[in-house]
Amino acid sequence: MRKLLNDPADLVKESLAGLAAAHGDLVRYDAAQQILVRADAPRAGKVALISGGGSGHEPLHGGFIGHGMLDAACPGEVFTSPVPEQMLAATKAVDGGAGVVHIVKNYTGDVMNFKMAAEDAADEGIAVESVLIDDDVAVQDSLYTAGRRGVGATVLAEKIAGAAAERGDDVAAVAGVARRVDERARSFGIALSSCTPPAAGKPIFDLPEGEMEVGIGIHGEPGRRRAPLGTLDEIAGLLVEAVTTDLKLESGTQVLPFVNGMGGTPQIELYALYGEVDRLLRAAGLEPVRRLVGSYITSLEMAGASLTLLALDDDLTALWDAPVHTPALRWGA
Amino acid sequence: MSSVTAVVPQTVVAWLSGLAEDVAAQADHLTQLDAAIGDGDHGINMNRGMSAVVATLGEQDDDVAPGRLLIVAGKTLVSTVGGASGPLWGSFFRGAGRALGDAPELEGPELAEALAAGVKAVQDLGAAVPGDKTMVDALLPAVEALREALAGGASLADAARSAADAAAEGARGTVPLQARKGRASYLGERSVGHEDPGAASTVLVMTALARAVG
Question: Which chain B residue has the Cα nearest residue A79?
């Protein structure tokens, strides 16, 4: 393991302190609670948006705090859900009286801890709406599983619901917009290498030369199956087919493809992948009118990529276009 | 043998500090089990939580009731572990502690009923049933074995050893199962052939209890 480290147990706190030092105009860090809060929080009358989950997915979530996106983030230990105390502290820190929306990725630990926090917040008289993100088509949704994972749609839901909160929507409407993004978005990912969680000190899985993991999540875990490593064009075809088959969109639908790097794949490969994805979507009769390309929801230094496809409507497009100013995403502001 | 017939505050402290030692010693093993079907940090997270529990118990007065100690331990796990293990193990100890209330001393059957309440709290939160390849596959048979042995007239020490054995058997039984709950369920058929890490930590919990009352 070669990482920039002091003690692995201190890395999350050191990283959060560093992020706040680098972006003090946007974010402040509460070290005692291990939460990141928007510098100008709480904003009276504005619905507050909170997300959180294990660390190791940067810039998710701390990188998305600021104007037009999140009001607070609760980063847990690496790949481990934060605890209810953090979420409650964040909820209280950003509540401006208009209610708080929790964006929760569908992982058992995140769901349980956010549920406990929402109950505690309700006891303190704060209106909390929880939105569950579950967009990963690699996992079959059924009564007998924990359901689909929440992955790339999280970034899109945070941006779009954040814009809705900024324009003054009430708490039910902001939660409703986030749920609409989740319903209209699907994701699928592949890995070309494992990552190495700092505390574990070694890769989670071995991937022989010439193979890839198909249907991965964002925790460095193996995917649903292993397959021979495809070319860029073959992988683009695999990703596009997986998400479009599940979404079943009508020809002419306006879409937002989000090509995401898992942390260890360079931009040169991601743009090459985007180019082929764009071509395949158009060939399938879909119309990419907005797009996002980059490493926004990662698994430490894992190599690989995921595709999230969001079916837009006029309101979602307008909210996507609305100004955003955060450490990791910025336009129009 | 200095077997105990009644559970007093010192029994709970001995149980949980013994568990903390076992978790520290087995942290790498738990983490390896988790690496196969999860993300490889179960031992690290449990070790962090149990170290915090030991520190918290050290701050309590000597006469705090067993039930209160278990509630404090449960809350500490929830607030330090995170992930799924924190809420689940936190609910187990908190649920058991609430069932005991403020009684300063209790007999084996009362402990068994309290642990059954803890199992119910775990199942209420995680919604796992036997066969899902989770901690429930070790925890449920362990607590059932404890109750049955005590009902049959066994000493608390013998009953607790039966419970530890049942937990170990339950944990081994998770190996051929396909996970239907938690992060391992996302691997589908690839989860088959590995012992569930939560079931493995259940064995440590029950073994430490057997030692504390043995």
Answer: B39
Element of type H or E holding A294? strand A292-294
Best mutation target among B75, B186, B194, B196 (most A Cβ atoms within 10 Å) is: B186
> What separation in angstroms does the CA of B51 have from each of A23, B16, B54, B77, B89?
34, 10, 5, 10, 14
Mutate to test the interface with A, among B29, B33, B39, B46 (most CBs of A within 10 A): B39
User: Which tens digits make up the pLDDT trace of A114-151?
Assistant: 999 999 999 999 999 999 999 999 987 665 667 899 99
pTM score, two decimals?
0.94
Q: What percent of chain B has pLDDT over 90?
A: 87
Asked if B214 reaches chain A (Cβ–Cβ under 8 Å), the answer is: no
Residue A283's SS3 state is helix
- One of A23, A61, A102, A219 is an active-site residue; which one? A219
Instruction: Count the alpha carbons within 13 Å of B94 in the hemisphere toward its beta carbon.
Output: 17
Nearest CB partner across the interface for A83, out of B31, B79, B187: B79
Residues of chain A that touch chain B, judged by Cβ-Cβ distance less than 8 Å: 54, 76-85, 107-109, 112-113, 116, 138-139, 144-146, 149, 197, 199-200, 204-205, 217, 219-225
Ranges of residues in chain B with a pLDDT under 50 are 1-2
Task: Name the band, by pLDDT with cuts 50, 70 and 90, for residue A17.
Answer: very high
Q: In chain A, what residues touch B186 (CB-CB under 8 Å)?
A: 138-139, 146, 149, 217, 221, 224
Question: Long-range contacts of range A278-282, CB-CB < 8 Å, 24 or more positions apart?
Answer: A280/A236, A280/A237, A280/A240, A281/A240, A281/A244, A281/A255, A281/A257, A281/A309
Cβ(B82)–Cβ(A85) under 8 Å?
no
Neighbours of A148 (CB within 10 A): 24
Nearest by CB to residue A84, choosing from B78, B88, B125, is B78
Which residues, 6+ apart, have CB-to-CB distance to A280 below 8 Å? A236, A237, A240
ipTM: 0.91
- Residue A219 catalytic? yes
DSSP conformational letter for A230: P
C-alpha to C-alpha distances, B117 to A11, B96, B100, B113, B155, nearest whole angstrom: 38, 6, 10, 6, 21
Q: Please tell me what DSSP assigns to residue A47.
A: P
**Average pLDDT, whole number, for chain A?**
95
**Cβ contacts of residue A2 below 8 Å, gap of 6+?**
none
pLDDT tens for A193-208 read: 999 999 888 888 889 9
Which residues are registered as beta bridge partners of A104? A132
Which residues 114-143 in chain B show a CB within 8 A of chain A? 125-126
Grouping H, G, I as helix, E, B as strand and the rest as coil, residue B114 is helix
> Considering chain B, what is the average pLDDT of its residues?
94
Q: Indicate which residue of A57, A61, A67, A102 is catalytic.
A: A57
Distance between A324 CA and the closest CA of chain B, angstroms: 31
Per-residue pLDDT, averaged over A5-32, amounts to: 97
**Distance between CA atoms of A191 and A211, rounded to whole angstroms?**
9
